[in-house]
Each structure stands twice: as structure tokens, then as C-alpha cells.
Design a protein that fits this description.
The chain is mainly α. The chain is built from seven helices and four strands, in the order ααββαααββαα.
Length: 178
């Protein structure tokens, strides 16, 4: 059976994503922290259910408009604002990472979603100045946003039907993969 035809039989999607993110992270010239990889795998697991990726409007699924949600979040009470910022940041991370190629078909490019995600993580840091026993964790997520999305994109490409799994991976900045 070819690698692309194999089923993923891991009972825990978060562990599956963690293992693959960590695999690419170890090949990086500037590896990310274990906490960052762990958190990123949780994000990927959380949005493994596509229902969390869409809003329901009049009984129909509609893409979440993250820029508008970011602006609206500033009007929310503190706890709701914190939750909204986390969701916006995480969705931006996943869009720019795992679903990077799908953004090529959109009018708004990856840079927009990257900026929205970084802003949301920076604002979230003021609500949660520490996470996973790491000071300024979400501020670090904002500064490592591009590196995290690169790893997510590599995991996505690894399981894409178009990608030859036998190809060697060299991890560089700016989405250059060879």
C-alpha cells in the first residue's frame, strides 16, 4: 500500500499532529519550543471538527470573517473578548498553516490572515500573560506565527495526494519547501 493510501489509525488526533509537527521542527534551523509545538497540535486537533471552522447563519454554514470578528471583539466583556481573540488567533494560525494553499483561491491573501492572527495573539497576551508556564506565551506565538504556520503547512503537504512522501524536506523561511 502506498503512503498516500494509508489510513491514519492513531486514536488521538492531537498526538498525531504533535508527532508530525515535532518531526519537522527537529529539522528546522531554528526549532520552536516544545510548548509551542504542543499548543499548535492542540489547535489543529480542536479544528479537526469542521463545524468549529464555520458560523451558522440562517441554518447555513458560512466562513467566519476574522477581521470583522477581531474589530467586534473589542466591544465584548473581558471573558468573551479573551475567548474571541483566542478563536480568531487559532483560526488564523490554521488557515495560514494547514490550509495555506486554499488561500491562493481567495481575494484576501495570506498576509492579511497572518496580520489578523498576530494582532489577536498580541491582544490575547494582555489577558493571559502566561500559558504553559511560559511568560508572554501568546506574544511569542505572535512573533513565531510564520514559523508555526510553516510547520503546519509541511504537515498538510506531507499528507497531500500531490506530494511524494519520499521527497527530502528542507525547511526554509518564506514557504520555500524542497
Amino acid at each position: 500500500m502506498s503512503d498516500s493510501a494509508k489510513l491514519i489509525l492513531d486514536g488521538n488526533l492531537q498526538v498525531f499532529f504533535y508527532d508530525h509537527l515535532q518531526e519537522f521542527n527537529t529539522r528546522s534551523l531554528s526549532p520552536l519550543s516544545t510548548e509551542t509545538i504542543f499548543y499548535s497540535s492542540l489547535v489543529m486537533d480542536r479544528f479537526g471538527n469542521s463545524e468549529k471552522f464555520f458560523d451558522q447563519v440562517n441554518g447555513r454554514a458560512r466562513e467566519k470573517i476574522l477581521g470583522i470578528k477581531l474589530m467586534e471583539s473589542s466591544q465584548f466583556p473581558r471573558e468573551l473578548q479573551k475567548n474571541a481573540l483566542k478563536e480568531i488567533a487559532e483560526m488564523s494560525l490554521l488557515l495560514c498553516g494547514y490550509f495555506y494553499d486554499s488561500l491562493n483561491k481567495k481575494i484576501i491573501d495570506v498576509k492579511y490572515y497572518e496580520d489578523v492572527g498576530k494582532i489577536a495573539y498580541t491582544k490575547l497576551n494582555s489577558f493571559c500573560p502566561s500559558a504553559y508556564d511560559v511568560p508572554s506565551f501568546y506574544k511569542r506565538m505572535a512573533s513565531n506565527f510564520s514559523d508555526v504556520t510553516m510547520l503546519m503547512s509541511l504537515v498538510s503537504k506531507k499528507y497531500s495526494k500531490e506530494t511524494d512522501p519520499a521527497l527530502p524536506w528542507l525547511i526554509l523561511r518564506d514557504r520555500q519547501v524542497s
